[in-house]
Amino acid sequence: MFFNIKIYNRLILSCMLFLCSLIGSFAQNNSLVLNGAFVNINNGTWSNPIYLVVNSGQPTAIVRNSGHIISEMEGNFVQLNTNDVIAATDFVIPFGYSNTDYLPVTIHKNSVGSGVGHINNASPIVVSTWGTPANNLLWANSVSNMIGIAGGNELNSVIDRWWQMLASTNVSATFDVTYRGVENTTSNPTGIFNAQQFDVPTDIWLLSTGTGSGVTTGTGTVNNISLIPNGLGISAPFILSSNLSPLPIDLISFTANCTDNVMNINWTDASEINVVNIELQKSEDLNTWTTIYTASPSNQISITNYNFTYNEVSDKVIYYRLKTNNNDGNFDLSEEISVIPCGAKVESLNAFSDGNIIQVQSNFQNSCNVNYSLFDIQGKLITTGNYNANTGNQFFVISLEQIASAIYIFRAESSKTMCNKKLLITTP
């Protein structure tokens, strides 16, 4: 039988306990018992999630004899309020697909937590999982890319299932996940698979963790995935990717600055599998690009740092990008960065986020009006305004109240220049 669940703090379900369980007659029990029932959590979205909450720190917080919990949407969460006094404990969340495949998530918790969301001696662990079509659309809401410098993408290297995890600051844990074999539509389905987490604050894919052999029938498992706590209250999306072509890991950093007419360019990446070389390219108009340096890659799944310096005499804004050439003949391009050459008299606009504060930096030869707008990731206008920027370097502060923690697009524009930038906004 199926139960459609929205929000319950204490719940017992079994095939024998039907209506009485749903109306809370057994609400004194801080556990969820599945004895042949299929609990279907419905209608949760990214912006309006739904939680099935179990207030217990015991490993028996959820007991399954048969049946399972059907999440199958990004916003349908199970929340375990695990108790501080029990650190080294395993918790099993009995997820499943429809009324067929059992897809449990096992959390091996080995420390207590603190910080955001840490209430009444509880360390909440919040999880959801859902399958996607073979092209992996739709991506998890906070994921901005699945293509970059490592050679894989959502079509050839990623199993068609997502997991969202949220843990309080300082909770230390690993976890195991299970997927359906038919969801493994990768180009090397019987190889070794690892998990990768998209780090929302830095907007990059992190290094692979955990391991498991790929399957195309039945169910497969990847074990010992590291859970990196996120004190921002933002769920961390996970996928499973082939270790032969891990999901492209974007640059950890890419910066340029000028001192005494010497341009100093640095970048750091975290994976270079199947890479021939990396070209540093320069442009003054974003149309014509010239390679000024070619780096030899490490070709390892590890953090690699690069540096290049040269004399620059131009008085125009200089743009840089990285072109990563892969063994298969294809290449990937990074986003462009820009820098003002030493002593150049050019005008610029930039923006930075700090919690729920946006700082707009301007550098103008003459005072002028700046218009700005903030959009959510779907393009909906959140706020707009304008201010008068003075001559020289200036910071203008925009304070955002009652806004959800998420990634936003910020646009600022004057009569001569503009800034269009993705920013992470977090609210206390």
What are the SSEs and their pairings?
Blueprint: E1 2-5, H1 19-22, E2 32-41, E3 50-54, E4 62-70, E5 76-83, E6 89-93, E7 96-97, E8 101-102, E9 105-109, E10 122-131, E11 161-167, E12 173-180, E13 192-199, E14 204-205, E15 209-213, E16 219-227, E17 236-242, E18 253-259, E19 262-269, E20 275-283, E21 290-295, E22 304-311, E23 318-326, E24 331-333, E25 337-339, E26 348-354, E27 357-364, E28 368-376, E29 381-389, E30 392-399, E31 406-413, E32 418-425
Parallel strand pairs: 1-2, 2-4, 3-5
Antiparallel strand pairs: 5-10, 6-9, 7-8, 9-12, 10-11, 11-17, 12-16, 13-14, 13-15, 13-17, 18-19, 19-22, 20-21, 20-23, 23-24, 23-25, 26-27, 27-30, 28-29, 28-31, 31-32
List keywords for this structure.
single chain, 428 residues, mainly beta, Immunoglobulin-like, eight-stranded mixed beta sheet, 1 helix, 32 strands
Structural overview:
Strand 7 (96-97) and strand 8 (101-102) form a beta hairpin. The chain starts with a strand and ends with a strand. Strands 3, 5, 10, 11, 13, 14, 15 and 17 form an eight-stranded mixed β-sheet that branches. The protein is built from one helix and 32 strands. It is globular, with a radius of gyration of 25 Å. The protein folds into three domains: 2-242, no CATH class; 261-339, Immunoglobulin-like, CATH 2.60.40; 348-425, Immunoglobulin-like, CATH 2.60.40.3080. The chain is mainly beta.
